[in-house]
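so ive been stuck on this for like two days lol. basically i have the seq below and the ligand is zinc ion, smiles is in there too. i just want the complex predicted, nothing fancy, no docking runs or whatever. if the output looks off dont worry ill sanity check it later, just need somthing to start from for the group meeting slides
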Amino acid sequence: MSAGSIELMTMTPPPGWRWPNFMPQEMACRHCGETYYWPDFMDRLQAARDQVGRPFRVLSAHRCSLHNARIGGAPRSQHLRLAVDIALHGHDARSLYRALRQTGFTGFGFYNTFIHADLGPLRRWFGNNSARKEWHNWLD
Ligand SMILES: [Zn+2]
């Protein structure tokens, strides 16, 4: 690639990309564009998106190990494979969580402004005490 090339800026999904509401770029490492191809994860994410019927704003998805370390991510974070942090703005938090759970996500982090979902071990955590209080009303 030559200097000034914009190949990485293309908005056209590669052949075989079957998740109409997500772009490869939003699932890639924000720091270097590294991707982690996991069709089953994407099928579930698309199913949750279809169920909710509202756009998902993905704040963070795959992270390369360098980026994960730089931002203080857990050393064995599921983001090193694939995980999503979805902004809560514009969503009913409970509906969003339920859709993610029903489509098979197993790991959940509850924060004030976003929800983390992954396909790792069954677990839940809260970003801080105020997130815990807020989410407590919505979890069953
Ligand atoms: Zn990176």
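Residues 19-136 form a domain with the Muramoyl-pentapeptide Carboxypeptidase; domain 2 fold (CATH 3.30.1380.10). The mean pLDDT is 91.
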